[in-house]
Amino acid sequence: MKTIILLCCAALGAWQPLAAAPGAVDAATRNAHWREDLQYFATVLPAKQMDFFKLIPQQKFEKEMAELEGHVPQLSDLEIILELKRLVAGLGVAHTMVVAGGRGEPIYPVRTQWFSDGLGVVYTAPEYRQALGARVLRIGSRTPEEVQAALAPYISHENEAMLRHESPTFMMWADLMQHEKIADTDGGLSLTLAKADGRQFTLDVAPENGDARSSTNWVSANVELSIPAPFYLEHLKPYYGYEYLPERRALYIQYNQCAEDPKESFAAFTKELFDFADGHPVERVIVDLRFNGGGNSSIVQPLVEGLKTRPALQAGGHLYVLIGSSTFSSGLMAAIDLQQGLHAILVGRPTGGKPNCYGEAKVLELPNSKLPVQYSTKHFRLLPRSDPPSLEPDLPVAFTLGDFLAGRDPILEAALHH
Question: Which letter, b or e, does each residue of 25-36 get, where b requires 16 or more Cβ atoms within 10 Å of its Cβ?
């Protein structure tokens, strides 16, 4: 199953406003180009997206598209794109989306994250560093939960876990926040925050061009507040890696991408892994899939087969899999393979991926605006006897803002001490 194109405001698609200067087209040409794009969208997407008219009634879709086409002269480019995003998100397919809101557009240089007990600030541009580690109480006049509810119609998702994973990124999209009247009319955004000691303060954030400053120059809460690096972060690998914890006789494996590391194939990695395991006392294996958003579902097989040939490593209570809202697509499939085939105990939070879902995503591009639209070509039924919105952990574990600020990883700790 192919992974979702995760929406990151620093690189969210490459659509081109049809009336952009210099060399902007006249209004009549602009409107004609949009109508051509909308007609292409209305014809091609239903033909390419699997089960399109099972996901939305044909009459409803055609009515909405006709109304949108008729209102093109009165709508801005942004408003047309938001209507398309809303319509596609309404299909309820996480792999299917209009990929827009991106490069060069105004963003708020404040990145938040949902924790079990609320929304916290984890990255900012240097001038807003006083917000790092603070709890978000209000965004404009609304609570974070109310803001998420307002943005949800534009976010392709199938469950609450994916919505909470994606909504902080959409909260950075200044045009959307202004469109929803969450930001001020001038684009400014007021945040009401609370430090860990309960002290409240207000921070006014101005939007900036998404290309004006790389997010690599932003400040993280971990660095600014000298938060101890949790084990998973200290040993974070781009693709995969392992560490041995001798005091627990535990083998910790990170599998962060369903893809081959150009520096070491997964087959070579697993050979080294099992050579090590065969030569050391290992009583517990922990496979961390919390950051695996998918890719090629076949990549994981050497790990699965290696565990199958070592009964001591996958006997009851010896194999644990960590999951969370970023566990999606082929990452989710790997979790199910390990749970069903090897009786692994799932630990953590519900997955952002839905077990029975549409996937194998491909992308079409509208001819004039170059707006990318991702669509799904297959349906996967990984749990034939049920249809839950998420893969639920056998051992649910909360991850609070307090845990984050203390550098704790209660999910890994739960797997180590269960």
Answer: eeeeebbebbbe
